[in-house]
Amino acid sequence: MERTLVLVRHGQSEWNEANLFTGWRDVALTSLGIKEAQRAGRALKSHGFHFDLAFTSALRRAKDTCKLILDELGQDDITVVEDVALNERHYGDLCGLNKAEAAERWGEDQVHTWRRSFEATPPGGESLRTTAERVIPFVEERILPEVVSGKSVLVAAHGNSLRSLIMDLEGMSPEQIEELTLATAVPRIYRLNEDGSIAKRYDLKDEE
Ligand SMILES: O=C(O)[C@H](O)COP(=O)(O)O
User: Fold this and answer.
1) 158: Cβ below 6 Å to ligand 1?
2) What would the DSSP string read from start to end of 125-160?
3) Which domains are seen in the chain, by residue range?
4) Quick check: is 104 catalytic?
5) CA 141/CA 139 separation, integer angstroms
6) How far apart are alpha carbons 89 and 138 in whole angstroms?
7) Is the dihedral of CA 23, 166, 128, 141 positive or negative?
8) Model confidence over 50-90: pLDDT tens digits?
9) Catalytic residue among 10, 72, 126, 158
10) Could you tell me which residues are annotated as the binding site for substrate?
11) Is the model's pTM score more than 0.90?
12) What distance in Å separates the CA atoms of residue 93 and residue 109, rounded to the nearest whole number?
Protein backbone atom coordinates (compact mmCIF):
# COMPACT_ATOMS: atom_id res chain seq x y z
CA MET A 1 0.00 0.00 0.00
CA GLU A 2 2.07 2.84 -1.27
CA ARG A 3 1.70 6.53 -0.50
CA THR A 4 -0.85 5.92 2.24
CA LEU A 5 -1.63 8.42 4.99
CA VAL A 6 -3.94 7.37 7.83
CA LEU A 7 -5.17 10.00 10.28
CA VAL A 8 -6.83 8.95 13.51
CA ARG A 9 -8.15 10.98 16.43
CA HIS A 10 -7.39 9.39 19.80
CA GLY A 11 -9.97 7.18 21.53
CA GLN A 12 -12.31 8.64 24.15
CA SER A 13 -10.35 10.42 26.90
CA GLU A 14 -11.35 10.90 30.54
CA TRP A 15 -12.15 14.54 29.80
CA ASN A 16 -14.12 13.67 26.63
CA GLU A 17 -16.25 11.48 28.87
CA ALA A 18 -16.61 14.27 31.45
CA ASN A 19 -17.33 16.83 28.65
CA LEU A 20 -14.47 19.12 29.68
CA PHE A 21 -12.35 21.35 27.43
CA THR A 22 -9.02 19.56 27.30
CA GLY A 23 -6.52 21.19 24.96
CA TRP A 24 -2.98 20.48 26.19
CA ARG A 25 -4.05 18.92 29.50
CA ASP A 26 -2.52 15.46 29.49
CA VAL A 27 -5.44 13.18 30.34
CA ALA A 28 -5.67 9.41 29.91
CA LEU A 29 -7.90 7.31 27.69
CA THR A 30 -10.98 5.78 29.30
CA SER A 31 -11.51 2.02 29.09
CA LEU A 32 -13.89 2.75 26.18
CA GLY A 33 -11.16 4.84 24.55
CA ILE A 34 -8.71 1.94 24.85
CA LYS A 35 -11.26 -0.39 23.24
CA GLU A 36 -11.94 2.13 20.45
CA ALA A 37 -8.23 2.37 19.66
CA GLN A 38 -7.87 -1.42 19.66
CA ARG A 39 -10.89 -1.73 17.38
CA ALA A 40 -9.35 0.79 14.96
CA GLY A 41 -6.15 -1.28 14.98
CA ARG A 42 -8.07 -4.47 14.24
CA ALA A 43 -10.02 -2.79 11.43
CA LEU A 44 -6.76 -1.55 9.87
CA LYS A 45 -5.27 -5.02 10.22
CA SER A 46 -8.25 -6.77 8.64
CA HIS A 47 -7.99 -4.38 5.67
CA GLY A 48 -4.32 -5.22 5.17
CA PHE A 49 -2.77 -1.99 6.43
CA HIS A 50 0.90 -2.05 7.32
CA PHE A 51 2.81 1.06 8.36
CA ASP A 52 6.40 2.10 7.77
CA LEU A 53 6.34 5.00 10.21
CA ALA A 54 4.01 6.68 12.72
CA PHE A 55 3.64 10.20 14.10
CA THR A 56 1.85 11.28 17.23
CA SER A 57 1.65 14.24 19.60
CA ALA A 58 3.34 14.73 22.97
CA LEU A 59 0.05 13.97 24.78
CA ARG A 60 -0.65 10.54 26.24
CA ARG A 61 -4.16 10.07 24.82
CA ALA A 62 -2.71 10.25 21.28
CA LYS A 63 0.50 8.36 22.12
CA ASP A 64 -1.47 5.56 23.79
CA THR A 65 -3.89 5.37 20.84
CA CYS A 66 -0.93 5.11 18.46
CA LYS A 67 0.63 2.33 20.53
CA LEU A 68 -2.63 0.39 20.90
CA ILE A 69 -3.18 0.51 17.13
CA LEU A 70 0.38 -0.61 16.38
CA ASP A 71 0.10 -3.39 18.98
CA GLU A 72 -3.03 -4.73 17.25
CA LEU A 73 -1.17 -4.64 13.95
CA GLY A 74 1.82 -6.47 15.46
CA GLN A 75 3.92 -3.44 14.53
CA ASP A 76 5.14 -2.11 17.87
CA ASP A 77 8.70 -2.06 16.47
CA ILE A 78 8.30 0.73 13.89
CA THR A 79 9.59 4.26 14.44
CA VAL A 80 7.09 6.53 16.20
CA VAL A 81 7.87 10.25 16.06
CA GLU A 82 6.30 12.28 18.90
CA ASP A 83 6.05 16.02 18.43
CA VAL A 84 4.25 18.88 20.18
CA ALA A 85 3.42 20.29 16.73
CA LEU A 86 0.65 17.66 16.56
CA ASN A 87 -0.78 18.50 20.00
CA GLU A 88 -4.43 19.43 20.35
CA ARG A 89 -5.35 23.11 19.88
CA HIS A 90 -4.59 24.90 23.17
CA TYR A 91 -7.96 25.80 24.70
CA GLY A 92 -6.50 28.53 26.96
CA ASP A 93 -8.76 29.65 29.80
CA LEU A 94 -11.45 27.15 28.74
CA CYS A 95 -9.28 24.15 29.74
CA GLY A 96 -10.97 22.19 32.50
CA LEU A 97 -14.35 23.91 32.06
CA ASN A 98 -17.45 21.87 31.29
CA LYS A 99 -18.60 22.45 27.69
CA ALA A 100 -22.32 22.52 28.57
CA GLU A 101 -21.69 24.98 31.44
CA ALA A 102 -19.60 27.15 29.12
CA ALA A 103 -22.52 27.22 26.66
CA GLU A 104 -24.83 28.39 29.47
CA ARG A 105 -22.37 31.10 30.49
CA TRP A 106 -21.29 32.46 27.09
CA GLY A 107 -24.15 31.16 24.88
CA GLU A 108 -24.33 28.18 22.50
CA ASP A 109 -23.28 30.24 19.47
CA GLN A 110 -20.14 31.67 21.06
CA VAL A 111 -19.01 28.28 22.33
CA HIS A 112 -19.72 26.61 18.98
CA THR A 113 -17.73 29.37 17.26
CA TRP A 114 -14.74 28.89 19.61
CA ARG A 115 -14.88 25.13 18.99
CA ARG A 116 -15.40 24.93 15.25
CA SER A 117 -14.64 28.17 13.41
CA PHE A 118 -11.31 28.80 11.70
CA GLU A 119 -10.66 32.30 13.04
CA ALA A 120 -12.17 32.53 16.54
CA THR A 121 -9.64 32.37 19.37
CA PRO A 122 -10.80 30.90 22.69
CA PRO A 123 -9.65 33.25 25.52
CA GLY A 124 -5.91 32.72 26.02
CA GLY A 125 -5.86 29.79 23.57
CA GLU A 126 -5.27 28.96 19.91
CA SER A 127 -7.65 29.46 17.00
CA LEU A 128 -7.75 26.78 14.31
CA ARG A 129 -5.74 29.22 12.17
CA THR A 130 -2.92 29.49 14.71
CA THR A 131 -3.08 25.74 15.33
CA ALA A 132 -2.60 25.25 11.57
CA GLU A 133 0.42 27.56 11.66
CA ARG A 134 2.32 24.99 13.75
CA VAL A 135 0.69 21.79 12.41
CA ILE A 136 1.07 22.42 8.66
CA PRO A 137 4.82 23.20 8.57
CA PHE A 138 5.45 19.97 10.51
CA VAL A 139 3.21 17.99 8.16
CA GLU A 140 4.86 19.49 5.08
CA GLU A 141 8.41 19.04 6.36
CA ARG A 142 8.19 15.71 8.13
CA ILE A 143 5.09 13.73 7.19
CA LEU A 144 4.12 14.36 3.54
CA PRO A 145 7.64 13.77 2.13
CA GLU A 146 7.57 10.30 3.71
CA VAL A 147 4.17 9.51 2.19
CA VAL A 148 5.08 10.87 -1.25
CA SER A 149 8.30 8.84 -1.22
CA GLY A 150 6.10 5.73 -1.09
CA LYS A 151 5.67 5.00 2.61
CA SER A 152 2.56 4.14 4.54
CA VAL A 153 2.25 6.54 7.48
CA LEU A 154 -0.01 6.59 10.55
CA VAL A 155 -0.78 9.86 12.36
CA ALA A 156 -2.52 9.56 15.74
CA ALA A 157 -3.44 13.01 17.02
CA HIS A 158 -6.39 15.17 18.06
CA GLY A 159 -9.74 16.50 16.88
CA ASN A 160 -8.53 20.01 16.08
CA SER A 161 -4.88 19.42 15.16
CA LEU A 162 -6.23 16.92 12.60
CA ARG A 163 -8.97 19.31 11.43
CA SER A 164 -6.27 21.88 10.58
CA LEU A 165 -4.32 19.19 8.70
CA ILE A 166 -7.42 17.96 6.83
CA MET A 167 -8.44 21.50 5.88
CA ASP A 168 -5.05 22.05 4.26
CA LEU A 169 -4.77 18.62 2.64
CA GLU A 170 -8.28 18.69 1.20
CA GLY A 171 -8.26 22.41 0.36
CA MET A 172 -11.35 23.09 2.47
CA SER A 173 -12.73 26.59 3.02
CA PRO A 174 -13.27 28.03 6.54
CA GLU A 175 -17.00 27.35 6.03
CA GLN A 176 -16.36 23.69 5.15
CA ILE A 177 -14.01 23.02 8.06
CA GLU A 178 -16.56 24.51 10.46
CA GLU A 179 -18.85 21.59 9.61
CA LEU A 180 -16.25 18.88 10.30
CA THR A 181 -16.05 17.13 13.67
CA LEU A 182 -13.90 14.01 13.88
CA ALA A 183 -15.19 10.97 15.72
CA THR A 184 -12.81 9.24 18.11
CA ALA A 185 -10.67 6.43 16.66
CA VAL A 186 -12.14 6.30 13.14
CA PRO A 187 -9.22 6.02 10.68
CA ARG A 188 -9.39 8.53 7.80
CA ILE A 189 -7.52 6.99 4.88
CA TYR A 190 -5.76 8.88 2.07
CA ARG A 191 -4.01 7.40 -0.96
CA LEU A 192 -1.82 10.06 -2.53
CA ASN A 193 -0.60 10.51 -6.09
CA GLU A 194 3.09 11.01 -6.88
CA ASP A 195 2.60 14.78 -6.81
CA GLY A 196 1.03 14.65 -3.34
CA SER A 197 -2.54 15.20 -4.54
CA ILE A 198 -5.30 12.95 -3.21
CA ALA A 199 -6.11 9.87 -5.32
CA LYS A 200 -8.66 8.48 -2.89
CA ARG A 201 -10.08 9.21 0.57
CA TYR A 202 -12.41 7.24 2.80
CA ASP A 203 -13.15 6.54 6.46
CA LEU A 204 -12.53 3.05 7.78
CA LYS A 205 -15.77 2.51 9.64
CA ASP A 206 -16.06 -0.15 12.27
CA GLU A 207 -17.48 -3.37 10.94
CA GLU A 208 -17.51 -5.34 14.20
O1 LIG B 1 -9.59 19.60 23.59
C2 LIG B 1 -10.74 19.16 23.66
O3 LIG B 1 -11.56 19.52 24.52
C4 LIG B 1 -11.19 18.09 22.69
O5 LIG B 1 -10.13 17.28 22.40
C6 LIG B 1 -11.74 18.65 21.41
O7 LIG B 1 -12.65 19.57 21.75
P8 LIG B 1 -13.76 20.21 20.77
O9 LIG B 1 -14.72 19.16 20.37
O10 LIG B 1 -14.33 21.28 21.64
O11 LIG B 1 -13.01 20.79 19.61
Assistant:
1) yes
2) S--HHHHHHHHHHHIIIIIHHHHHTT-EEEEEE-HH
3) 4-203 (3.40.50.1240)
4) no
5) 6
6) 15
7) positive
8) 999 999 999 999 999 999 999 999 999 999 999 999 999 99
9) 10
10) 9-16, 22-23, 61, 88-91, 99, 115-116, 159-160
11) yes
12) 18
